[in-house]
């Protein structure tokens, strides 16, 4: 059991989400930065899809009632355990009663805490993810909440000492045009790639909202609602694109000018308000 | 890569657009064709497909594990098959009868807006079969198409902060049964005692795309 002493600004339980229910109006949800959650799980010998904790801007204090192996990945934070520094990207043992204190990241936004055995809250539609849009899954972490940890018997041994930390954030995200780039003026894709956009304060797990050159539509009227993918750059009438993340609605009525390359979705999920980001075709 | 306008559009009139590396958006042009294509793909699901999401004029297929070229050809062929007139007449979806207690907070206002009596609103709402077009807004929230045009009323100017689960409502050309409590701007005609969303059920939604729906007036 892990007791949440302090969750930091926003923390949730996440696994790989609920794929396959989009046609029933259910967002996929799951870790915003999937490769980081997978890595954290591998470091403690979990299946990659085990549930962990996704911290936003770090800042959490977690008390382990029982001893357990843990690992942190994603946005690098100072991590202190019993007065000593515990590193990122490496498995470490937390003794019973140990308190893990996670500071704020210097760069990046989301940090993942994996515990050997996985966070064992009851699954909903096959997933333990907290979906901020639909409310499915467990509530966000709050002080005093106790998270059960699954059994570690039968898991493979921990064989990795440390994983290389991720490189610097790319600052440039690759996009593929469409599916609705023909709803925009001929210069709109060029405008999207011309100047950096700034990440707005009202970004969240649904999407990264961007401030910058508005993208101009060539067509008026309404697009019939259609299926949306993670990484889609949806453009509402104000012309400012929103990059859809894990909790994006499964359907939407604003045209999508382009979609992020799948390899850059994790980097988008690490953008924090005030960051500047460029797009490249 | 050249990224001129229309780069994500179909290259040769084929009705399949790329939505990133793993998504293909098939243009169907109509809800009926969307439903037929959705049914075709669910019956004989191509390898690697994780999501099939029908909309009023499209079906989105997400397939992180598939070869895009062959899948694109397969979807184009399936879309052609779905567009062809059905020899047996359209195979109808399953029919669900939804009981409704017509005591909604907006029933009288909908009557006033539509120039009908409250009783006539109920008659119109129960008088024809509706079809689940697609789901969105919330898990299990089905947009029911085929509503009597007399009942096409605008949404509330100010949405309610909470609409209870089971509320039966109309807005624009659609009707819906709220699957769970949520904020909502649709006008409430009544409430249904029949749950339409249950995360413990498989599937969790009663009203799936293509399902035919008949409302029936019951007393509370």
Automatic annotation (TrEMBL), chain A:
InterPro entries the record matches: CT_A_B, Cyclophilin-like_dom_sf, PxpC
> Start and end of every Carboxyltransferase domain?
23-281
Q: Which GO terms describe its molecular function?
A: ATP binding; hydrolase activity
Q: Which SUPFAM superfamilies match?
A: Cyclophilin-like
- Xref: Pfam families: CT_A_B (PF02626)
Q: Which UniProt keywords apply?
A: ATP-binding, Hydrolase, Nucleotide-binding
Kindly indicate whether the keyword Nucleotide-binding belongs to this entry: yes
Q: Which residues form a coiled coil?
A: none
- The entry's protein name is Allophanate hydrolase
Q: What is the lineage of its organism?
A: Bacteria, Bacillati, Actinomycetota, Actinomycetes, Streptosporangiales
UniProtKB/TrEMBL annotation, chain B:
Looking up SMART domains in the UniProt record yields: AHS1
A GO molecular function annotation here is:
ATP binding
Give a yes or no for keyword Secreted in this entry: no
Q: Keyword ATP-binding on this protein?
A: yes
- Its name, as the record gives it, is Allophanate hydrolase
Q: Which residues form the Carboxyltransferase domain?
A: 14-207
Keywords noted in UniProt: ATP-binding, Hydrolase, Nucleotide-binding
